[in-house]
Amino acid sequence: MKQRRFLVLEDGSCYPGYAFGSTKDAIGEIVFNTGMTGYQETLSDPSYTGQIITFTYPLIGNYGINEDDYEGVYPGLKGMVVHELAEHPSNFRSTKTLDEALKDFDVPGIYGVDTRSITRKIRSSGTMRGTLVDNADKLDEIVESLKVYQLPVDEIQLNSSKEIKQFPGDGPRVILLDFGSKDNILVELSKRDCEVIVVPWNTSAEIILAYKPQGIMLSNGPGNPTSVPEAIETIKQLIAQENLPMFGVCLGHQLISLASGATTYKLKFGHRGANHPVKDLENGKISITSQNHGYAVDEDSLKQTDLIVSHRALNDGTNEGIKHKEKPIFSVQYHPEASPDPHDSNDLFDHFINMMKTAQGGKQHA
Ligand SMILES: NC(=O)CC[C@H](N)C(=O)O
């Protein structure tokens, strides 16, 4: 029998639907994702930690869940909100249903709700707190508890690897500073033969430099980029090095900007999905990109730094990329590692590899 479940928002609205996944209640920041596919990657992307995701695409779960497409070790997201849940997926790689996966991960979901109306509300009122409950009889009490709920601030610490991990390769040696990295960043670097050393988010510049890296990669990650001042200080020291290529993705982009003296701010409802157009200001090229961020770099604040704006979002004109005026340092707010697609900007990894080769005069590491 179908179990009733309710999505209650901070503004007092209540959406009745049906339960799937875990039976526990959830509380978190309610956001929406506009991707037509990619729910498995979204489910396992550490950058969604603490959030309840509403999917605007009306049918979710139709190709099931497979063993290969996870982006993180455990899902950080708090809950899933879908319109129609596919109970009988069809795909040759599928090993379980989305409902079964959410049960395994102890993440609750709700289906049978008007996701379009929820999305319109978030777009007009902004991101807010929400909860998934099986009983909404005491709605006023639930709304009051939502209003005082503090969103967690330690998501990066929770998602970063706890120890240093080395992945061999014959190409340039890259330190991947892990703020809750999607697995596909490592995959893209390894595909290009890099030797990758993954280090926890709070590793000092001294330890990082002792590895004699040929490049530094700053990963994506959850939460507010200003919540890790230690990492910002480390990045400042790494930027100050002579000729050390650096590439930042999403949170990594925000951290390079903060370390250079710029500021970030919270967007009204963020960018989440696989269909966000971005313009490269140098050549006018438009890429369709995968995005997942709630904060953005303030372009005005970049004026007083050594960084210049390289990319901008076409939907709302917010910043999507920067590069250093002199040094081999660049970063983007979107996800060139994609996963889910599109792969329009995958060549940014090749650009990073070329930068490392140029910086080393073409030499491989010893
Ligand atoms: N995917 C990311 O790295 C997200 C960065 C940051 N947590 C934000 O929401 O803006």
Automatic annotation (TrEMBL):
Pathway(s) where this gene product acts: Amino-acid biosynthesis; L-arginine biosynthesis; carbamoyl phosphate from bicarbonate: step 1/1; Pyrimidine metabolism; UMP biosynthesis via de novo pathway; (S)-dihydroorotate from bicarbonate: step 1/3
What domain of life does the native source organism fall in?
Answer: Bacteria
Which SUPFAM superfamilies does UniProt cross-reference here?
Carbamoyl phosphate synthetase, small subunit N-terminal domain (SSF52021), Class I glutamine amidotransferase-like (SSF52317)
Domain Carbamoyl-phosphate synthase small subunit N-terminal positions: 3-133
- Where do the annotations place L-glutamine binding? S47, G221, G223, L251, Q254, N292, G294, Y295
What chemistry does it catalyse, as a reaction equation?
L-glutamine + H2O = L-glutamate + NH4(+); hydrogencarbonate + L-glutamine + 2 ATP + H2O = carbamoyl phosphate + L-glutamate + 2 ADP + phosphate + 2 H(+)
InterPro entries associated with the record? Anth_synth/Amidotransfase (IPR050472), CarbamoylP_synth_ssu (IPR006274), CarbamoylP_synth_ssu_N (IPR002474), CarbP_synth_ssu_N_sf (IPR036480), Class_I_gatase-like (IPR029062), CPSase_GATase1 (IPR035686), GATASE (IPR017926)
Amino-acid biosynthesis keyword on record: yes
* Active-site residues (renumbered): C250, H335, E337
In short, the EC number is: 6.3.5.5
CDD domains annotated for this entry?
A: GATase1_CPSase
Which GO BP terms, alphabetically? 'de novo' pyrimidine nucleobase biosynthetic process; 'de novo' UMP biosynthetic process; glutamine metabolic process; L-arginine biosynthetic process
Any GO molecular function? ATP binding
| PROSITE patterns the record matches | GATASE_TYPE_1
Q: Which HAMAP family match?
A: CPSase_S_chain
Assembly description? Composed of two chains; the small (or glutamine) chain promotes the hydrolysis of glutamine to ammonia, which is used by the large (or ammonia) chain to synthesize carbamoyl phosphate. Tetramer of heterodimers (alpha,beta)4.
Q: Family assignment?
A: Belongs to the CarA family.
Q: Name it.
A: Carbamoyl phosphate synthase small chain
Which organism's genome codes for this protein? Jeotgalibaca ciconiae
UniProt lineage: Bacteria, Bacillati, Bacillota, Bacilli, Lactobacillales
What's the name of its gene?
Answer: carA
